[in-house]
């Protein structure tokens, strides 16, 4: 796609998201994490190769992202990806050494509502 086509696509998506936001019932479709791998706050003996978060509602494939940082704030994850069924957000990880890691997620649900959060896990 050309830059112009990408921009046009993004603008049309934003218009759809804005329209959805006006529907009162849609408020129930906010997307929040159901579970994750690794689990929130866990300490692992073996470094995980990826982080996955499962959501309770469909998330947007373009506007949903996950980033993992180490205790020094360096990004240790590669580009995140939303699954075909749109409830799974995952990112492969670079090889991790022992330490604490922070997972930052930000998603847009089908009703256009944005939710975000962060949690940590450790590798010993
Ligand atoms: Cu909502």
Automatic annotation (TrEMBL):
<dbReference type="InterPro" id="IPR032694">
    <property type="entry name" value="CopC/D"/>
</dbReference>
<dbReference type="GO" id="GO:0030313">
    <property type="term" value="C:cell envelope"/>
</dbReference>
<keyword id="KW-0479">Metal-binding</keyword>
<dbReference type="InterPro" id="IPR014755">
    <property type="entry name" value="Cu-Rt/internalin_Ig-like"/>
</dbReference>
<feature type="signal peptide">
    <location>
        <begin position="1"/>
        <end position="29"/>
    </location>
</feature>
<dbReference type="GO" id="GO:0046688">
    <property type="term" value="P:response to copper ion"/>
</dbReference>
<protein>
    <submittedName>
        <fullName>Copper resistance protein CopC</fullName>
    </submittedName>
</protein>
<keyword id="KW-0186">Copper</keyword>
<dbReference type="GO" id="GO:0005507">
    <property type="term" value="F:copper ion binding"/>
</dbReference>
<dbReference type="GO" id="GO:0042597">
    <property type="term" value="C:periplasmic space"/>
</dbReference>
<dbReference type="InterPro" id="IPR007348">
    <property type="entry name" value="CopC_dom"/>
</dbReference>
<dbReference type="GO" id="GO:0005886">
    <property type="term" value="C:plasma membrane"/>
</dbReference>
<keyword id="KW-0732">Signal</keyword>
<feature type="domain" description="CopC">
    <location>
        <begin position="30"/>
        <end position="123"/>
    </location>
</feature>
<dbReference type="GO" id="GO:0006825">
    <property type="term" value="P:copper ion transport"/>
</dbReference>
<dbReference type="Pfam" id="PF04234">
    <property type="entry name" value="CopC"/>
</dbReference>
<dbReference type="InterPro" id="IPR014756">
    <property type="entry name" value="Ig_E-set"/>
</dbReference>
């Amino acid at each position: 796609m050309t830059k112009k086509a990408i921009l046009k696509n993004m603008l049309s998506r934003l218009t759809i998201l804005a329209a959805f936001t006006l529907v009162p019932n849609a408020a129930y479709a906010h997307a929040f994490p159901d579970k994750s791998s690794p689990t929130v706050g866990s300490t692992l003996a073996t470094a995980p190769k990826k982080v996955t978060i499962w959501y309770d509602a469909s998330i947007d494939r373009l506007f949903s992202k996950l980033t993992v940082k180490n205790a020094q704030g360096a990004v240790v994850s590669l580009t995140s990806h939303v699954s075909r069924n749109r409830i799974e957000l995952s990112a492969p990880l670079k090889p991790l050494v022992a330490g604490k890691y922070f997972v930052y997620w930000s998603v847009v649900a089908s009703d256009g509502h944005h939710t975000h959060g962060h949690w940590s896990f450790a590798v010993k």
